[in-house]
Design goal:
CATH superfamily of the domain at 1-69 and 157-164 and 189-238 in chain B: P-loop containing nucleotide triphosphate hydrolases
Largest sheet of chain A: 2 strands, antiparallel
Strand order of the largest sheet of chain B: 6-7-8-3-9-10
Order of helices and strands of chain B: EEEHEEHEHHHHEHEHEEHH
Low-confidence stretches of chain B: none
CATH topology of the domain at 1-69 and 157-164 and 189-238 in chain B: Rossmann fold
Strand order of the largest sheet of chain A: 1-2
CATH architecture of the domain at 1-69 and 157-164 and 189-238 in chain B: 3-Layer(aba) Sandwich
Structural class of chain A: mainly alpha
Shape of chain A: globular
Number of helices of chain B: 10
Helix content of chain A: 55-70%
Distance between the termini of chain B: 39 Å
Oligomer: heterodimer
Bound molecules: adenosine-5'-diphosphate, magnesium ion
Number of helices of chain A: 19
Radius of gyration of chain A: 25 Å
Mean pLDDT of chain A: 79
Number of strands of chain B: 10
Low-confidence stretches of chain A: 379-390, 485-499
CATH class of the domain at 1-69 and 157-164 and 189-238 in chain B: Alpha Beta
Largest interface: A-B, 37 and 45 residues
Helix content of chain B: 25-40%
Strand content of chain B: 25-35%
Distance between the termini of chain A: 31 Å
Chain lengths: 499, 238
């Protein structure tokens, strides 16, 4: 019992060495993973797919950070894009103008660090300029977060939402009113104060030609930092204070939580990581920073991810960020939609006679993973013996279904549904090729689902929210759904009788 | 010197006064009860003591120092904890997380762990439900959690707002028994607000009767319980 008390004492507040180690080990592992991802995956994908994978990472950072305010603390912020843009513009302006004034033009600086430092294999000098600029961008965004957090001392609910919305729109307008960008050193040298103030951030035209440092490695390294921070925060005394504010502000006060202080903290943390996401975006190949990046459309994209993932759930926000970003891309090509609907629908029928949500999450995410492989051209085996082309990814999917059915001691149904999947997949593929156009009497309507991308996207969202209003994972984390000894079930133990 | 001294306290909701010049004092180590009908101003009194409401007049001193200008978290840090009316538990957090929040203002880890153990011995039911969401507890268990949580702040003064509200008589007995245990084992001073005058007067050392924002009567609990006026108005004895 004594040791039980000590254990608990240790788990209470994390500032000791073991606590630091528990944060550092996953962080180092994740960053190592990001490096490996970059090394092995980057080579085998084209620019488009790399861009989507980076977009996914940036969406994760944005969603997980917004979740600190909207999910943990229960404050409704709809100005997250403002912090994103602040971080993006500040970091972009830093790398661009610093590189230009030191090296004469804003180019990628590939000088290896080993010239200055006795470590080989480290990223080159320019990458460190980028990281420094990103952190500064994050800090400026955090400062903005502090200012926006202040009104939340007095305001609740809708009023706070309006303030945050206003913040994003103010950022947008200020960026539109900024001075034109300097495109070479000479114009930079000759510039007067009037050219520098307001800052030369490219006005409504946008800010371009930023050195493109963002790579798969940096995106996922930042994702790692964000995830570990968010997780540690949630476990910490500070995180519990934020959650208690969401649950009941008055009761939180009664516990001795300085509600105003913690709300502002939530805004500062969230804004910092949104700023980092902005820096990643600003240095991503193909980006032109525009004032609209601070606008409410982007804020809403992030809110949708957080709401869909489940308020306060880190893994939920991550899952939803992946799903929605990938989905929005897939909807450009209708066949993906058919396949996805088909897989998820069949899996649901096959495996979840009753509302077994855990299976659906597993099946749904594996279907998404497999469909990504198909889209990227992996597992492209074919069976020329059968005139139908059964490809490898379908086999993998089919195997998965069989495994599940065997686990449920229902082999016959498994086999039937595998056959069903293959047959339907063929049918859909054939239909999509055969009928690109629908005829209504004399009029021909081209059946390009891609044109209705956002409509389908919205319909999918609506159906998820009707089906599961608390979001994909609700208030839980994905590991709460797994059977485990360490994480005993958090909910619904049987009530005491006789009450 | 009393541990808590409330003098001529006036509190208004907007323009409408709820307390007009309320005075009471709580001696260290005692259980003092404040009884009164619905709407008499009991909750208002507690919320003002804990800094959730600002008085428009009068003073509150704790341990000799004025506290009516401090913020709630400052007051908690001075050693006044409360189990608020309606329990105020954090429904989507686990019982364990609720308990940790009770000790939020403390920094002495070893002490917190010991007190947690002590609180779980007082309420063995909570130990069985540590990982369960607090919102799934029954009403009685939620009240137990609210009290256990406030005890974890290791307060010198504990404010309890109607701990018996909406509970079955048997549970009410248990709760009042535990309130006495807390005072006996910890020496915690307790200000107990109740409508259940019978149980409150039975438990407390000293009692105040509140009628529409004013103290109508006060005295040792046993003497008030025997007085005709209280017996008629609050104990339902004809
Ligand atoms: N938030 C509020 N706004 C306005 N009036 C209130 C508020 N809370 C309580 N009151 C009024 O103050 C008086 C005292 O209420 P309260 O302290 O809650 O009584 P009790 O706890 O004794 O039942 C009542 O007349 C009540 O209507
Ligand atoms: Mg009351």
């Amino acid at each position: 019992m004594k040791s039980q008390i000590q254990d608990h004492a240790r788990s209470l507040r994390g500032s000791s060495l073991p606590a630091l180690a528990t944060a550092m080990i996953p962080l180092i592992l994740l960053i190592f993973g990001a490096a490996k991802l970059d090394e092995f995956v980057a080579a085998s994908f084209d620019r488009y797919h790399l861009r989507v994978m980076m977009d996914v990472g940036i969406a994760i950072v944005l969603a997980v950070s917004l979740n600190i305010v909207n999910g943990y603390t229960g404050q409704f912020s709809i100005g997250h894009a403002g912090f994103f843009a602040v971080g993006g513009y500040v970091s972009a302006a830093l790398t661009y103008y610093v590189t230009m004034s030191v090296w004469g033009e804003a180019i990628l600086i590939e000088t290896p660090v080993s010239a200055l430092w006795p470590f080989p294999h480290l990223p080159p000098v320019g990458a460190w300029i980028f990281v420094g600029a990103a952190i500064l961008g994050g800090l400026v965004a955090a400062g903005a977060g502090y200012l926006v957090g202040l009104p939340s001392l007095r305001l609740r609910g809708d009023y706070l939402a309006i303030v945050t919305l206003g913040f994003g729109e103010i950022c947008r307008v200020l960026l539109e009113r900024s001075n034109p960008q300097f495109f070479d050193v000479d114009s930079m040298r000759e510039a007067t104060v009037a050219d520098w103030l307001p800052l030369p951030l490219g006005s409504a035209q946008g800010f371009t030609d930023v050195p493109k440092y963002t790579s798969l490695f940096w995106v996922y390294a930042f994702v790692a930092v964000t995830l570990v921070f968010a997780y540690r925060l949630k476990q910490s005394a500070t995180g519990r204070a934020l959650l208690s504010i969401r649950e009941d502000e008055t009761a939180a006060q009664a516990m001795g939580v300085n509600v105003t202080l913690y709300k502002v903290r939530a805004f500062v943390f969230a804004a910092f990581f949104a700023g980092l996401a902005g820096a990643l975006y600003a240095h991503q190949p193909g980006t032109i920073l525009r004032p609209l990046d601070a606008g409410f459309m982007r804020s809403f994209d992030v809110i949708i991810i957080v709401v869909l993932g489940g308020m306060g759930s880190i893994s939920g926000a991550t899952l939803a960020a992946v799903l929605l970003t990938v989905m929005a891309e897939w909807l450009r090509d209708p066949t993906h939609v058919w396949y996805l609907a088909l897989y998820i629908g069949l899996a649901r029928v096959a495996l979840t006679p009753r509302d077994n949500w855990r299976d659906l999450v597993v099946i749904g995410s594996s279907a998404v993973a497999l469909e990504s492989c198909r889209a990227a051209g992996l597992f492209a085996l074919s069976f020329p013996l059968l005139s139908v082309q059964v490809t490898g990814y379908e086999l993998v999917y089919a195997t998965l279904l069989v495994v599940f059915c065997i686990l449920r001691k229902d082999v016959l149904r498994g086999v039937l549904f595998v056959a069903g999947v293959v047959a339907f997949a063929e049918l859909v593929r054939w239909l999509a090729l055969k009928y690109p156009v629908v005829r209504f009497g004399p009029t021909e309507i081209p059946l390009r689902l891609g044109d209705y991308r956002m409509v389908i996207y919205a319909l999918l969202l609506v159906s998820v929210m009707i089906f599961r209003p608390q979001g994909l994972l609700g208030l839980k984390e994905i590991w709460d759904f797994l059977p485990s000894r360490r994480h005993a079930p958090r909910t619904a133990a049987p009530r005491v009788s006789g009450r | 010197m009393p541990l808590l001294e409330v003098r001529d306290l006036c509190v208004k909701y907007g323009a409408i006064p709820a307390l007009h010049g309320l005075s009471l004092s709580v001696e260290a180590g005692q259980i003092v009860t404040l009884i009164g009908c619905n709407g008499a101003g009991k909750t208002t009194t507690l919320r003002t003591i804990s800094g959730l409401l600002r008085p428009s007049g009068g003073s509150i001193t704790f341990n000799g120092a004025p506290i009516h200008t401090l913020s709630t978290d400052g007051i908690v840090r001075l050693g006044i904890a409360q189990a608020p009316e309606g329990r105020g538990i954090f429904g989507n957090l686990t019982v364990d997380e609720n308990l940790s929040l009770g000790a939020f203002a403390r920094r002495d880890r070893a002490g917190i762990a010991k007190d947690r153990e002590w609180a779980l011995q007082l309420f063995p039911r909570l130990r069985e439900r540590l990982r369960q969401n607090a919102g799934t507890l029954s009403g009685g268990e939620q009240q137990m959690l609210a009290i256990a949580r406030s005890v974890l702040a290791r307060p010198r003064l504990l404010l309890l707002d109607e701990p018996s509200l909406g509970l079955a008589p048997q549970i009410v007995q248990t709760i009042f028994h535990i309130i006495r245990t807390i005072r006996e084992e910890r020496g915690t001073t307790i200000l107990l607000v109740e409508q259940n005058a019978h149980m409150a007067l039975h438990t407390a050392d000293y009692a105040y009767v509140l009628e529409v924002g004013r103290i109508a009567m006060h005295g040792p609990a046993a003497r008030l319980a025997a007085s005709d006026a209280v017996r008629k108005a609050y104990l339902g004895v004809a």
